[in-house]
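Problem 12. The chain below contains 347 residues. Write out its predicted structure in token notation.
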Amino acid sequence: MNPSPDRPDAGPLRRMCWIFPDRESTRMAETWHAMFWDLYAEAAEDLGMTWTRHSPDAVTVDGTEPGRPRVYVDDAPVSPGDTLFITALYSLPYQQMDVFNQYALATVLQQAGFYLPFPPETSLIGNDKLATLLHLAGSPVPPIPTVRVGTGRDVSRHLYEVALGNMTYPAIVKPAGWCGGGGINLARSVGDIRGLASLAQGGDTTLVVQPYLGDGTVDHRVYVIDGAPHTVLKRTPQPGSAVANMSHGGTMEFTAVPEELAKATAYFAERLRIPFFCLDFLHDGQRFWFSELEPDGVIPRVPGDPDGTVQRDITRARFAAYRDAHARHLADADGGASPSTSPTETS
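Solution.
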């Protein structure tokens, strides 16, 4: 059963602050506003909350009084009682300089008592594709075989090839921690991997190598909310393409959750225990393979949902789940009672 986004006043949450590196180009910022940023703000307002976006440096913490940290977003005080921070890591090439600041800030906020839907340890698991597969190795849907390759000053020695003995070709080679279909390449031999690794060396980009499941492989993204599968975003690549993302010419549609994936969700929910995440599965025409975890997966506008009805429904359910989890966090922190004050509230 899908979670309801319309439960009245599940908690005192009033503000959701999304921590996101402020490095987008003017062109891409306009794209993200139209695709989901504006919708996120509208969906939050529907639920009596605000959603705002901030770079890590917008948060200031006064820790001069032991046990009573005071936290400010820009120059406005916030408290664990009314605010949560969305801190899923973003590590695209132009965001690399922000990676440590994102992790450090998330840890500081966690220690200050704020509820984080994506605590730092979850971002670590979700940001590296092999870490994800190892953490979720007991998945009832088999994980796609993966080799992780570091690229540094000794990449020309090809020492990583010791781990490629079981790899089949053609193979997919892609960054271990990017998103959006960026950097995905098809390698038909070890020689191709050598060339891609030498290019990745330029940015110290860690790679993963996986067997290519074949032309026409379809990606199924399951939106999991409060531990239950909500909706699937089905992404189909163009003929001859190894990438299903719409930015690479793929098509997208919202569909019902396949029974096999619905049954598997309980395992993932038990292992992750966060109110919202996305699971990507690849279907090769015969079977599903578990591909990756997206803690903050995009909820896009798709052609079959021109009014954004499904997109808005998923977003509202996601934010309502955050509100409910925030209320539980406050209750747990106060021994079961809903606190009216918190360590960072100022008089």
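Discussion. Residues 56 and 102 are 6 Å apart (CA to CA). Students who got a different answer should revisit the alignment rule from Section 12.3.
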